[in-house]
Every structure is written in C-alpha cells, then in structure tokens.
Amino acid sequence: MLGPLLLYDADCGFCRRAAGLAPRMRLGTGVRAMQDVDLARLGVDAQRATREMPFVGIDGKVVYGHSAVAAALLTGNVALRLVGRFVGSALLERPMAAAYGWTARNRGSLPGGTRACAIPPRPANNEEPTGP
Question: What span, in angstroms and rounded, lies between the C-alpha atoms of 10 and 99?
Fold first, then answer.
C-alpha cells in the first residue's frame, strides 16, 4: 500500500455518496470500495467493515467508524485536520461513536440510501466495539 486508504461499501448508496466526498474535499487518502481490495491483506475485519467504514493508515493500523472519518480528515488541509482532531478527540469518543452508530444503523433511510444499505444483523455473541 502506498498511502492511507479509506474503504466503503460499494453496495450501499449512502456509503458511496459519503466516500465520494473525500476526493472533493481533497483529502490525502485513497478511496476504494471494500469489495475491490483484499481486506485480509490490509488487516481489515471484513465482518466489521460491513457495519463501520474502515480506514487503513500509512502505518497499516486500521480504525473504524467515526475514528476512520477522523483519520481521513486528518489527511486534509488545515481546517479539515482541525475537524479531524475534534471528531477523533478522547473527550468526544462516546458522542461521536453514538452519532456514527446511529448513522450506520439508519443509512438505508438517509439520502442516497436504499434497502441494500441495511446493515446485516450482528452475529450472536459477537459484540463489536464502535471505537478504534
């Protein structure tokens, strides 16, 4: 991998629209559909990636959800980096995780969303954290 990479679910219209903002914001990260890459090679949990957007840092560290959004913003201009620091701050961990979780759970009913955007049910006994 040559640089940071933001991944999205190509089967989800809302996800495609959200990921499409990255190039327009001139973020310094690649943006790819998770269906087009080898998730295991990148260290991305495929099951978790269906629920939370993954971001693979230049160091290979993978973060998900609001932490992925924050990490992607940190690759932008000064103003976007400030927003990224805000979104990823420890002080706002819980509210940002909750906001991202709500958005992810409701992505099928948000602009650009379709039934294909619905998040599959979480497997029994598999409690996934929403943070990094």
Answer: 22
